[in-house]
Design a protein that fits this description.
Layout (H helix, E strand, L loop, with lengths): L1 H21 L4 H24 L6 H38 L18 E2 L8 H8 L4 E2 L4 H5 L7 E4 L4 E4 L3 H12 L17 E6 L2 H9 L5 E5 L13 H12 L6 E5 L34 H16 L4 E6 L5 H13 L4 E6 L2 H5 L1 H4 L6 E3 L1 H9 L17 H14 L6 E3 L7 H10 L3 E4 L4 H8 L4 H13 L3 H10 L3 H5 L2
Parallel strand pairs: 1-2, 5-6, 5-12, 6-7, 7-8, 8-9, 9-10, 10-11, 11-12
Antiparallel strand pairs: 3-4
Helix pairs in contact: 1-2, 1-3, 2-3, 7-8, 8-9, 14-17, 15-16, 15-17, 17-18
């Protein structure tokens, strides 16, 4: 009866242990772990059935070993269950280890926020822009500690300024600017008619529908990993088709640029990335995960092809963190083998920009991810507030690399876009167009502002602004010099 009870426990507890372990292991290790669990169960069952038929000493050793391994595994399962029970109790009652939550009273509407930590291209800042919420991050504790309940604070997210207890004139000006409603009519172009595709960054179907309502000319960055950040297991092909189709349906007949899974670093996926890497930003992330788990990309491309076939959208698929011509060739060939006609790459590392002419022998297009490109060019963690001055695409070194990428694409007629946060900066958008960028992708809320500024300048003026920025010695010099040439920014309150 004891053995029978153990076997029954095994049937229920082993799957739980396998599921929990699978949340922290990659696909290959997860399969190995499940194989070990099955092997233990089978060996124990066999030993249980035959041990009485053999009186040999070796059979006793096998039986004892099986029992030890079996019960050790059961004890491990019990520990995991116990830990999860304690975590549940803590989350619901004790809250001893609960993560810090903003001290916001229930029913209070948040209209802006200030954070002492974080960088300008951190995902906290990106989320704030997507919500249209003024936000300033990386102020340091000296600023936030100076604020008290009841203070009136004027937060200008565009200029990055904080005014404590502003004057009535300043409040009146802020309210006047906030009341102005600008719309984008879906016709991105410079003053002299040079077309610039103004696209939207989205992470799911709801975001895609909002972008379509905002007039976006298409999607310049569909962050597919955002659909699955909370998934402990790789989504099935069918689940992926459903998620992708919801986004594609929002833009019938228009371009939808899909980024394959950008997993790793600050966007870990339990089923794909290794949480124990010492330096994940430089580790096995994004396209590099195919070295270990190529089947995940295969499943995603299959799902994208099926989703495209079921809709009228024009899918452009690109891989993040492409570093070499070999990677560009391998990805584009694989994408086309699944029926995806337009395949490209993201330019996020200096090598891709410097070798753009070689990479464009294979890629149909490219999109510059300025957030990561800036991080790698300046060797500055984008999440650190202390390095915020380095984490800006206004850095002349970053702009020069973007220009180099555009020069590499031009002879082959390949379009280069920008989908990082730089695209949402109206002044920087004009510089990027001057460098040769064909499309700008941003949060949908930024479309009217960028459009208004581009329509105030000609292509030649954009090229002149680009030269001014490239010739500057510092990021602040570049930003100040360009903004001085764009008086419309002050008129628009930007």
């Amino acid at each position: 009866m004891v053995y029978l009870y153990s076997v029954l426990c095994c049937l229920f507890l082993f799957p739980y242990l396998g599921w929990r372990a699978g949340q922290v292991l990659g696909p290959r290790l997860r399969r190995v772990f499940w194989g070990l669990l099955v092997l233990i169960f089978v060996l124990f069952s066999i030993a249980l059935l035959i041990h009485r038929r053999f009186e040999a000493d070796w059979m006793s050793a096998v039986m004892n070993g099986s029992v030890y391994i079996f019960f050790s595994t059961m004890y491990a399962t019990a520990v995991v269950v116990g830990v999860n029970v304690l975590r549940y109790i803590d989350a619901r009652t004790l809250k001893l280890y609960a993560s810090a939550r903003p001290a916001v009273k229930q029913g209070v509407k948040v209209v802006a926020f200030i954070a002492s930590e974080g960088g300008p291209t951190s995902h906290t800042a990106i989320l704030a822009r997507a919500l249209g919420m003024p936000a300033i991050v990386g102020t340091g504790e000296k600023v936030t500690d100076a604020l008290a309940e009841g203070d009136i604070v004027l937060v200008d997210g565009t200029k990055g300024s904080i005014t404590l207890n502003p004057s009535e004139d300043a409040l009146r000006r802020a309210r006047e600017l906030a009341s102005r409603v600008r719309v984008f009519n879906g016709d991105g172009a410079t003053k002299d008619g040079h077309e610039v595709q103004l696209l939207a960054n989205v992470g799911d179907a709801a975001g895609a529908r909002s972008a379509a309502e905002a007039g976006a000319m298409g999607i310049g960055l569909f962050r597919t990993e955002f659909c699955f950040l909370d998934q402990p297991e790789e989504p099935t092909v069918e689940a992926q088709v459903e998620a992708y189709q919801g986004v594609l349906e929002a833009f019938p007949g228009k371009k939808v640029v899909v980024r394959t899974l950008d997993a790793g670093a600050d966007k870990p996926l339990p089923f794909l990335t290794d949480a124990t890497e010492a330096n994940p930003a430089l580790g096995v992330r994004a396209y590099r995960t195919t070295r270990r788990d190529p089947e995940v990309l295969d499943h995603q491309l299959e799902a994208l092809a099926k989703a495209e076939a079921a809709t009228e959208a024009k899918v452009w698929v690109m891989a993040p963190m492409i570093s070499t011509a070999e990677e560009a060739e391998a990805f584009t060939q694989k994408a086309r083998s699944y029926g995806l006609k337009t395949a490209g790459m993201m330019i996020e590392v200096p090598s891709a920009a410097l070798m753009a002419d070689k990479l464009f022998e294979h890629a149909d297009f490219a999109s510059v991810g300025t957030n990561d490109l800036t991080q790698y060019v300046m060797a500055a963690d984008r999440l650190l507030s202390s390095l915020a001055d380095l984490s800006t695409a206004w850095q002349p070194a970053v702009l020069r690399l973007i220009g180099t990428a555009c020069e590499g694409a031009s002879p082959k007629g390949r379009p280069v876009g920008v989908c990082g946060e730089a695209a949402a900066d109206p002044a920087l958008a004009a510089v990027l167009v001057g460098l040769g960028v064909a499309s700008l992708s941003m949060t949908a809320r930024a479309l009217p502002d960028v459009d208004a500024v581009l329509k105030s300048v000609t292509l030649a003026e954009c090229q002149e602004l680009a030269r001014i920025a490239l010739d500057s010695a510092t990021a602040e010099d570049a930003r100040s010099a360009v903004r001085a040439k764009l008086p419309i920014l002050e008129e628009l309150g930007l």
